[in-house]
Design a protein that fits this description.
It is a single chain. This protein is of the alpha/beta class. The chain has 2 domains: about 5-20 and about 45-145 and about 315-340, no CATH class; about 170-310, Periplasmic binding protein-like II (D-Maltodextrin-Binding Protein, domain 2, 3-Layer(aba) Sandwich). About 35% of the residues lie in helices and about 15% in strands. It contains 12 helices and 13 strands. The chain has helices at about 5-20, 85-95, 100-105, 110-120, 150-160, 190-195, 225-235, 250-260, 275-280, 295-300, 320-330, 330-340; strands spanning about 55-60, 65-70, 75-80, 125-130, 135, 145, 165-180, 185, 215, 265-270, 285, 290, 310-315. Strands 3, 6, 7, 9, 10, 11 and 13 form a 7-stranded mixed sheet that branches. A 4-stranded mixed sheet has the order 1-2-5-4. The longest helix is centred in the first third of the chain and has 17 residues, at about 5-20. Mean pLDDT is about 90; it is low at about 1-25.
Length: about 350
């Protein structure tokens, strides 16, 4: 390990040992809810020998601190919305203490995760603080757990000679949000596209209040939710360029804007249902039906909800350990783990 990286990682591990707190950047800055083990938690993994961490070795001259290899357990990075899934997988396979999960699952968010996967770079932030362990920061990430890559990321992978394998592991709904003060309960897919192309600019055009302009919030290009908006919802229609004030850097910021009382008559935005329900709560929000269909688990599994999405385990073709792990994720055991973490299983 390079000396400078070792010093940086030692500093990080020491900070985690001292504070025993979650990281303050990346995905953790977009989460304001506790992600705790359920009271009725069950172990679904029957043979924990299949995916295990490697050996740990003491750091020379650093009492109580060690570096651990990844062994057969995949190094991960990914989307904020899949942080609880990764935590559940670590509970199941590695039997980590709850206080260690925030440091071990340290995602950098979707675009950075794909950049690392394509460029064969590590996720240098993973630690097991209570044991004084820093995970090997020279091992390239094996799996991106989250939303699928966008067109730019697929092109970057092609240019780098990396073939991305995408394995769907669970379901979610891409949803549209308004403030609870907004009387609108349902929009059609065409009305949504009209709002985001600028063809529909007032709420009264879609059954809302008169004299209320629509403030349509977006995410930056490259974010997981913006990819879904561009490729799934717009379906070839061009998103209208908007004022910078209507582009939210983080998903948490978008949720806060929609829930803000000042935006009660005007705002609309989008996110993933799991994120809204489980990871970030702010203000007073309402999830809209689309084409009269609510985003219930049954409607996701049947495909009735029009904007049903998958979360994926994405890896570079040829990574046999990642392939084995992704295969397990779609097994009955893996799907039970996803369901226990609150996600909608594939079946």
């Amino acid at each position: 390990m390079k000396k400078t990286m070792k010093v940086l990682c030692l500093a990080l591990c020491a900070a985690l040992l001292a504070a025993a707190a979650a990281a303050e950047s990346g995905s953790w800055s977009q989460i304001n809810q506790s992600i705790a083990r359920r009271e009725d938690w069950q172990r679904h993994v029957t043979d924990s020998s299949a995916f295990r961490l490697g050996e740990s070795a003491p750091l020379e001259g650093q009492d109580g601190l060690s570096i651990c290899g990844w062994g057969s357990y995949p190094s991960m990075d990914g989307s904020t919305v899949c942080v609880p899934l990764a935590m559940e997988l670590a509970r199941q396979w590695l039997d980590l203490a709850e206080e260690d999960l925030n440091g071990f699952v340290n995602f950098s968010t979707t675009p950075y995760a794909y950049d690392r996967l394509i460029r064969k770079q590590p996720n240098p932030m993973a630690t097991i603080a209570s044991r004084g362990i820093m995970m090997d920061d020279t091992h390239p990430i094996d799996i991106v757990l989250g939303t699928g890559p966008n067109a730019d990321e697929r092109k970057a992978a092609e240019d780098a000679g990396v073939e991305l394998v995408m394995v769907p592991v669970c379901l979610d709904a891409f949803v549209f949000l308004v403030n609870s003060e907004n009387p609108v309960e349902n929009l059609t897919a065409d009305q949504i596209r009209g709002i985001y192309t600028g063809a529909v600019s007032r709420w009264e055009e879609v059954g809302g209040l008169k004299d209320a302009l629509i403030a349509a919030y977006q995410r930056p290009h490259g974010s997981g939710s913006q990819t879904a908006m561009e490729e799934l919802v717009m379906d070839g229609y061009q998103l209208t360029a908007v004022d910078e004030n209507y582009i939210s850097d983080g998903m948490a910021d978008l949720i806060a804007q929609i829930g803000n009382y000042d935006n009660s008559r005007n705002a609309i935005g989008y996110s993933y249902l799991y994120y809204v329900d489980s990871l970030y709560k702010s203000g007073s929000l309402k999830v809209l039906a689309v084409d009269g269909v609510q985003p219930t688990p049954e409607n996701l599994q049947s495909g009735a909800y029009p904007f049903t999405v998958n979360y994926y385990a994405v890896y570079a073709k040829g990574n046999e350990e990642a392939e084995r792990f992704a295969g397990w994720l779609v097994s009955e055991e893996g799907q039970d783990c996803a369901a226990q973490a609150g996600y909608v299983p594939l079946y």
